[in-house]
Design brief:
171 residues; alpha+beta; 24% helix; globular
Length: 171
C-alpha cells in the first residue's frame, strides 16, 4: 500500500516537500473508515474546520468538491478541496487542495487504513501522506512541521472520537 498510494521524498522538485503521519486507533477499521470517508463532513473530527459546503457532487465519488470555512486563528479563512479517489474496498482516499486563501499550494493528501495484525485487539492503522509546494519565503522543514502538526491534531481527534464510539458500541 505504501508503494502504491503514498508519496515518498523521491521525485519531488526542490520547491516541494512531503511527509507521512501514522496514527494507531483502537477501533475497528470499518468504524474508522465510516468517519474518514465522509468527504462531505470533515469537521466531524477535523477541529480546524468550521463549516463544509459541497459545491460539486455529494462527497461519495471522485470529482466531488468541498468548500471549507476554517476556524479563526489559522493563517487562512477558506480552502477548496477535490476528492480525487475514494476506494471503499481498499480504504483509500486522495484529496487535493484546488483553491483557498492558504499557503498550502498544490497540496495532495493520501489516506489509507489498515488492520493492525500485530495487536491482540481490534486496531486500525491510519497512514496519511502528502506532497505540497514550499511557499515562497519558507523552507521545507517549516512547511512539513506546519502540515504535520495540523494532520497530527486531526488524527488524534479522529482516534479519540472513534475509540469512544467503539467503546459505546461495545466492539
Amino acid at each position: 500500500m505504501m508503494k502504491l498510494y503514498h508519496t515518498s521524498n523521491q521525485n519531488l522538485s526542490q520547491k516541494q516537500c512531503a511527509s507521512t503521519v501514522i496514527q494507531k486507533i483502537d477501533a475497528p477499521l470499518h468504524l474508522v473508515w465510516s468517519v474518514v470517508r465522509r468527504f462531505d463532513n470533515p469537521q466531524a473530527y477535523k477541529k480546524f474546520i468550521k463549516n463544509c459546503n459541497m459545491s460539486a457532487g455529494d462527497g461519495g465519488a471522485a470529482g466531488s468538491v468541498r468548500e471549507l470555512e476554517l476556524v479563526s486563528g489559522l493563517p487562512a479563512k477558506c480552502s477548496v478541496e477535490r476528492l480525487d479517489k475514494l476506494d471503499d474496498d481498499l480504504h483509500v482516499m486522495v484529496v487535493s487542495n484546488i483553491g483557498g486563501d492558504h499557503r498550502l499550494i498544490n497540496y495532495r493528501s493520501t489516506v489509507t487504513l489498515h488492520e493492525d495484525d500485530d495487536s491482540d485487539k481490534t486496531t486500525t492503522v491510519l497512514i496519511e501522506s502528502y506532497v505540497v509546494d514550499i511557499p515562497e519565503g519558507n523552507c521545507g522543514e517549516d512547511t512539513r512541521m506546519f502540515a504535520d502538526t495540523i494532520i497530527s491534531c486531526n488524527l488524534r481527534a479522529l482516534a479519540y472520537m472513534t475509540e469512544k464510539m467503539a467503546c459505546d458500541q461495545s466492539y
